[in-house]
Amino acid sequence: MSKGSNNNPSRRQFLSGAAVAGAGIAVAGAARAGDPLITEVQQWARGLGEGVDATPYGLPIRFETDVVRRNVPWLTADPISSINFTPIHALDGTITPQGCAFERHHSGAIELSKDDYRLMINGLVDTPLVFTYADLERFPRQTHVYFCECAANTGMEWAGAQLNGAQFTHGMIHNMEYTGIPLRTLLEEAGFDTSAKWVYVEGADASSNGRSIPMEKALDDVLVAFKANGEALRKEHGYPVRLVVPGWEGNMWVKWLRRIEVADAPVESREETSKYTDTLANGVSRKWTWVMDAKSIITSPSPQAPIRHGHGPLVITGLAWSGRGAISRVDISKDGGKTWETARLAKPGEKMALTRFYLDTTWNGEEMLLQARAMDETGYVQPTKAQLREVRGENSIYHNNCIQTWWVQSNGEAENVEVS
Ligand SMILES: Nc1nc2c(c(=O)[nH]1)N[C@H]1C(S)=C(S)[C@@H](COP(=O)(O)O)O[C@H]1N2
Ligand SMILES: [Mo]
Hints:
The protein is globular and about 80 Å long. A hairpin with a 5-residue loop joins strand 3 (118-123) and strand 4. The strands form 6 sheets. A 5-stranded mixed beta sheet has the order 4-3-12-7-8. Strands 5, 6, 9, 10 and 11 form a 5-stranded antiparallel beta sheet that branches. A 5-stranded antiparallel beta sheet has the order 18-17-21-22-23, with no helix packed on it. It is 11% helix and 28% strand. The protein contains 8 helices and 23 strands. The protein has helices at 11-20, 36-39, 43-46, 133-136, 166-170, 183-190, 215-218, 385-392; strands at residues 82-83, 104-105, 118-123, 129-132, 142-149, 173-182, 198-203, 211-214, 223-228, 231-232, 242-244, 257-263, 278-279, 285-286, 295-300, 312-321, 327-333, 341-342, 344-345, 355-363, 368-376, 405-408, 414-417. The protein has 420 residues and is α+β, with helices and mostly antiparallel strands. It has 2 domains: 73-283, Oxidoreductase, molybdopterin-binding domain (Sulfite Oxidase, Chain A, domain 2); 295-417, Immunoglobulin-like (Sandwich). It binds the ligand Nc1nc2c(c(=O)[nH]1)N[C@H]1C(S)=C(S)[C@@H](COP(=O)(O)O)O[C@H]1N2 and molybdenum atom.
């Protein structure tokens, strides 16, 4: 594996880089006479704006109406048991606003009030318990940022480049700040003995989406969460209470959480046998593939975010994450993986949370085969498509974490292409 050059984009380098690009190629236009947006009093300065009572709960301004979740109708038979995608190509930073965070339902998003909410813990416990929402609010809380990625994210790309946009190839992911109670606290409240090796968690919706989770994980960092990004969970993300299973596949993040059964064996439910297993080239299926391996994606430029400005300074940016811990480094290639430069992390990687990266570079209209490659604190390096296929074959849907390529053309348009 080639080593990334140590690119440290100080402000000074950035400015000299822009200067080298040549006279007339500056980021800001020279002040010119006669721009009416500068010389004339505009309509928004002639009158008054809206009062503080106009918008009790704000939505994005109308110029941003394209920053929305989108679904792909042919992917599923109907929109009830289906998925939509986060517009990651249009976001920056790391926190996903709830209003555009992807949704995955097996039997639709249900409406369940706090008053009607009950959470049962039963099975191999000293005392079976039922918590109301008000009960949950009385336990000591924690707040953490975590990504939630559906195991099927990028699943359509196994055989070849298919969907034209980061939103569609990598948008089954969101990253929020959750507030909740450690599952450990509630399990200890009920009391359990050493024969308890698993918990089976299920939701209140018709699908129930039941999953078995090993006790070790349940006692480690799993949260019973009721807030996301500071406010109540949205209906579509499991209001009023969902499970947060850091670093593990989205399917285990049970929404509308209604029951936790402590058991000595896994249930082997539909969601962990016929679904969410990975069929290898020889036809054998892997199961219990819970952790989401390190992965990254360039969000801009990308097919839905082409380069619209001229030659000169270009910001390449994207997201990296790992279910095994913090992202330690992200490299970017402009030539389909032949040479690499190390990107700048917006801030040090955080465990099981999205990390934003930037490469502040210069573009003079040359074609690029743009790739990002993530590394995590365990030393794991995100594989190429060929490396992943060698191990996994082409029968899989889930857990596709291979390096993605965007072909950026001289006109700035970008396309999903396969470089394996
Ligand atoms: N109760 C319930 N929980 C569920 C699901 C569901 O259909 N019902 N879908 C699961 C799947 S497959 C994923 S990827 C995540 C998606 O969470 P989100 O809709 O908040 O994005 O929720 C999981 N939890
Ligand atoms: Mo999922």
